[in-house]
């Protein structure tokens, strides 16, 4: 009897894992970055704007930011995203590495995402008081890994190599 | 599981405060959010979800610099049932009232009263912002207060509250940040 019980539990947890997987797939399909903007926070000037932020996972993609961005003491980054599905606990994890060495990571918890919603996140990034590395050192050597996470499952993971031009 | 552990260790954040901006649709919540960082407010669309603005408050108003995450959630009727998902861990509440919309004043105060019943919003400092005072037919801030149903929610006692007259957004936000930082 105990044995049968075990078996039943096992199969129901397998089903729920399958459900979870399907749900995650649905979330990923309905999740879209609408735009990404980088602005000089001091005067609101838009330094970079992109409406096609590719979230496909398979390859490292290149992004070209203007050099002037490195001169801002405060940078404002505005990310607009859409979700067709409700997400219980959305989080963003970004890992930034220079020459394959992680130099910084950023974590933000959005929490609940309303189904069929469009949401924006505007964040002020302050430059390090010790000064910023020159563009020549950073350009092409800076890699940004971005993970969107629901609870502890990855919705998607993308890699961008950053150039300053 | 490595990922989850990393997330947990990152969650221990220093001085951060979460401010929630609510109110009926078209009250001006997103405009307020944008105005906080002097952004262009000429092309604002109805919010179909949330807008978050992460700001660092200047040390002038608090002991140390304070990191603020200001959340503006859409106010349309269809979205309001989702508000409750954002109450948890809120340090300050801003309730925006459209002073020129006298037809919906009752609805506006009903929503505010139901917010004040919420467990997660107890003891959270509340800033009521009487917006659109510059419009011709606006009720003045005192008139808003005199509305009997509006008033009843200010008489609840323990709730720390504040009422802002007309155009003092800056002043109101400073009060809110100061009150939060004293509580923390």
UniProtKB/TrEMBL annotation, chain A:
One GO CC annotation: cytoplasm
The record's annotation in Pfam families points to: GMP_PDE_delta
Question: Domain GMP phosphodiesterase delta subunit spans what residues?
Answer: 26-164
Q: Where is this region: Disordered?
A: 1-20
Q: Which residues form a coiled coil?
A: none
Q: Where is the composition biased (Polar residues)?
A: 11-20
Compositional bias annotation for Basic and acidic residues? 1-10
Q: Where is the signal peptide?
A: none
Q: So what family is this one in?
A: Belongs to the PDE6D/unc-119 family.
Question: What name has this protein been given in UniProt?
Answer: Retinal rod rhodopsin-sensitive cgmp 3-cyclic phosphodiesterase subunit delta
Q: Which organism is it from?
A: Stylonychia lemnae (Ciliate)
TrEMBL record, chain B:
Keyword Metal-binding on entry: yes
Q: Which Pfam families match?
A: Arf (PF00025)
Q: Which domain of life is it from?
A: Eukaryota
Which Gene3D superfamilies does the entry link to? P-loop containing nucleotide triphosphate hydrolases
Q: Does the keyword Nucleotide-binding apply?
A: yes
Q: Which InterPro entries does the UniProt entry name for this protein?
A: ARL2/3, P-loop_NTPase, Small_GTP-bd, Small_GTPase_ARF/SAR
Kindly list the GO molecular function terms attached to this UniProt entry.
GTP binding; GTPase activity; metal ion binding
Q: Which GO terms describe its biological process?
A: establishment of cell polarity
Q: Which residues bind GTP?
A: 23-30, 75, 131-134
Q: What keyword terms does UniProt attach to this protein?
A: GTP-binding, Magnesium, Metal-binding, Nucleotide-binding
- The UniProt record gives the binding positions of Mg(2+) as 30, 47
**Family as reported in the entry's similarity comment:** Belongs to the small GTPase superfamily. Arf family.
Q: What is this protein called?
A: Adp-ribosylation factor-like protein 3
Species of the source: Stylonychia lemnae (Ciliate)
């Amino acid at each position: 009897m105990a044995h049968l019980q075990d078996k039943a539990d096992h199969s129901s947890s397998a089903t729920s894992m399958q459900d979870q997987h399907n749900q995650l797939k649905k979330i990923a399909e309905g999740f879209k970055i609408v735009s990404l903007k980088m602005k000089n926070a001091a005067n609101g000037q838009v330094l970079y704007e992109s409406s096609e932020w590719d979230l496909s996972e398979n390859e490292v993609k290149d992004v070209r930011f203007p050099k002037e961005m490195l001169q801002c003491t405060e940078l404002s980054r505005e990310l607009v995203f859409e979700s067709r599905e409700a997400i219980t606990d959305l989080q963003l994890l970004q890992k930034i590495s220079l020459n394959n060495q992680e130099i910084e990571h950023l974590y933000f918890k959005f929490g609940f995402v309303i189904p069929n919603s469009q949401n924006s996140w505007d964040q002020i990034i302050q430059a390090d008081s010790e000064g910023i590395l020159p563009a020549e050192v950073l350009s092409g050597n800076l890699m940004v890994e971005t993970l969107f996470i629901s609870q502890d499952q990855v919705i998607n993971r993308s890699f961008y190599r950053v150039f300053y031009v | 599981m490595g990922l989850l552990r990393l997330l947990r260790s990152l969650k221990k954040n220093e001085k951060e405060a979460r401010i929630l901006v609510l109110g009926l649709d078209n009250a001006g919540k997103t405009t307020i959010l944008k105005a906080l960082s002097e952004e262009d407010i000429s092309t604002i669309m109805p919010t179909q979800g949330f807008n978050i603005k992460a700001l660092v408050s200047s040390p002038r108003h608090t002991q140390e610099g304070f990191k603020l995450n200001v959340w503006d959630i859409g106010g349309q009727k269809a979205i309001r049932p989702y508000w409750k998902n954002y109450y948890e861990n809120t340090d300050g509440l801003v309730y925006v009232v459209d002073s020129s919309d006298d037809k919906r004043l009752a609805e506006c105060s009903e929503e505010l009263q139901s917010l004040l019943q919420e467990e997660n919003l107890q003891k959270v400092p509340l800033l009521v912002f009487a917006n659109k005072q510059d419009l011709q037919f606006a009720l003045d801030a005192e008139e808003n207060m005199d509305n009997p149903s509006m008033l009843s929610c200010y008489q609840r006692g323990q709730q720390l509250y504040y009422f802002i007259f007309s155009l003092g957004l800056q002043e109101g936000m400073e009060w809110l940040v100061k009150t939060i930082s004293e509580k923390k």
